[in-house]
């Protein structure tokens, strides 16, 4: 959507928050906005995201990747947040141990008891919860996914990477 289309939606009571690849948006609507109003703007579905919809599929299957496990029943997760939420402040208030906040993607890395996973996902500020990234290993073919390149190159960002310097981890074998 271009700026004019977004402004039209805003005047119609729909505030876009996040773009999701394949032409979807996370949005907030004014309570008085009706389903007819939404349909007139091309909205095909509206509803509240459930905690389960915000969880990585690996968590839904009860599988926690080994690299995400920490001592006891603790797990390390990455929590993507709404754009208007300060990731550092959210992480501090979420409980658990804060490992850091990522300003570019507005996400927080935290360690929590596994039993708190659903309560984290239920929070309105949370967009998505996933396991932490796997450790760096030789022949790791996941750098495009880990760097979230597809999201950066998709709308609304449309970034190309031109002019960006990149570091490569080398295992040291010749």
Secondary structure topology:
Blueprint: H1 3-11, E1 14-20, E2 24-29, H2 35-40, H3 57-60, E3 74-81, H4 87-93, E4 97-102, E5 107-113, H5 117-121, E6 126-131, H6 143-146, H7 149-153
Antiparallel strand pairs: 1-2, 3-5, 3-6, 4-5
* Largest beta-sheet details: 4 strands, antiparallel
Helix content: 10-25%
The 3D shape can be described as globular
In round numbers, the mean pLDDT is: 84
Q: Which strand order does the major sheet show?
A: 4-5-3-6
Description:
By secondary structure, the chain is α+β, with helices and mostly antiparallel strands. The protein is 23% helix and 23% strand. The chain is built from seven helices and six strands. The strands form two sheets. Strands 4-5-3-6 form a four-stranded antiparallel sheet. A two-stranded antiparallel ribbon has the order 1-2. A hairpin with a 4-residue loop joins strand 4 and strand 5. The chain is globular, with a radius of gyration of 19 Å. The protein starts with a helix and ends in a 21-residue tail after the last helix. The model has no long low-confidence stretch (mean pLDDT 84).
């Amino acid at each position: 959507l271009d700026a004019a289309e977004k402004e039209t939606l805003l005047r119609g009571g729909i505030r876009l928050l996040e773009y999701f690849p394949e032409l979807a948006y996370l949005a907030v609507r004014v309570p008085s906005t009706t389903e007819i109003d939404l349909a007139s703007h091309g909205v095909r579905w509206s509803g509240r995201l459930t905690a389960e919809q915000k969880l990585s599929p690996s968590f839904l299957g009860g599988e926690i990747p080994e690299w995400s496990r920490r001592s006891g029943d603790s797990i390390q997760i990455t929590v993507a947040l709404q754009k208007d939420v300060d990731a550092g402040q959210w992480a501090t208030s979420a409980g658990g141990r804060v490992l850091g906040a990522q300003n570019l993607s507005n996400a927080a890395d935290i360690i929590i008891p596994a039993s708190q996973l659903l309560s984290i996902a239920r929070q309105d500020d949370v967009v998505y919860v996933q396991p932490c990234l796997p450790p760096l290993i030789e022949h790791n073919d996941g750098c495009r996914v880990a760097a979230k390149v597809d999201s950066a190159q998709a709308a609304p960002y449309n970034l190309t990477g031109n002019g960006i310097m990149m570091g490569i981890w080398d295992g040291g074998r010749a």
